[in-house]
Amino acid sequence: MPEGGVPSTSIVVISRHRPQALARCLAALAGQTHPDVEIVLVADPASAGIRPDLPLKRLAFDRANVSAARNEGLALAAGEVVLFIDDDALAEPGWAEALAAPFADSRVLAAAGFTRGPDGLRWQVRAERITPSGRSVPLNIARATLLAPENGCPVGTIGTNCGFRRAALLEIGGFDPAFAYYLDESDVNLRMAVRFPQALTAVVPAAQVIHGAAPGTGRGEAGVPQDLTAIGRSAAIFAARHGGDAGWLRDNQRRRLLRHMVAGRLDPFAIAPILATLERGLAEGRGQVPAPPHWDRSAPPPFRPMPRMGMAAEPLFLAGWHWQARALRARAGQAVAQGRPAVLLLLTPSFLPHRLTLAAGGWWEQCGGLWGASQPGDPAVMFLSKKARILRERGNLPGRRR
Description:
By secondary structure, the chain is α/β, with parallel strands linked by helices. Helix content is 28%, strand content 22%.
């Protein structure tokens, strides 16, 4: 274990036909502060060679099965801890280090971070438990906490922001390819709780990622569902294996579709056909109880550490009006080129809500109105002076979050 007690860590990224999102994901991972980390990329052949400047472990894999792809990454991972992140997610600078740190405690076998939505600011998922029916139950947690399963419900981990002790994950057979999409990591949580009932899962609010809504299995732009067959199938298999009832999913997905309809992203006449695909999936998975997976893969290739590209220095904070963007971005780019992280806040004299992302030049950039909402729970309109607004935001940007 390296200095500071953070275990050696492998980060597994799986990607399929989303090269632009993958490139941004890898750029964020290259800026991690973890002292002993390797990156394993499992991607379609056209994307597996992306970012040749980074010393990644790479594997070309083009099956539409999230669990199978994650197992391929797990087979190459040599770290004591294995973290997983989606290709449409951006890891904040201290993500890997924060998520891996609790594994210094031998009782910890899994960890879950906090995930923000596509705007980079509002919460998508925080802490939750997962039930045998596949339903999540939110937990009110604001600081790092270690939790054991409770009444058969372990802490849930979502695939875009989770970690496991590699030895424990191998002992339960890794991910189950029966879950090609949806509830794949929740199945791991339940099987691990049965095998290690006293083990702890770390909930780590400081381990944050921004999860996008790139098109993928069964969904189009902005995360709009197009086909729920895979979700229905996985939910039925999950409930059959763990003794739950997948019926709750019907109302859950109906509400999801209605939210997209109200937002103007989904034609009202498309709702019934899409819900029919959910029923088809539930029918396909009903009664299926596949045998738990068994791990029989050979040892991974030697650990391949990333160079210390993660920038531990205090980020350069820049702020100004949007019409000053060109000069401020030039300063941010210069700092990044010199090895110093940079965060940039651009304001407009408006009520526009804020958005946060990783700029192409490698700095984190937040844009929004002087009087617009920027944090979870903010009102739509906030009357602040420019100075007060800058002071408020500077502590909530990546690398500086309180």
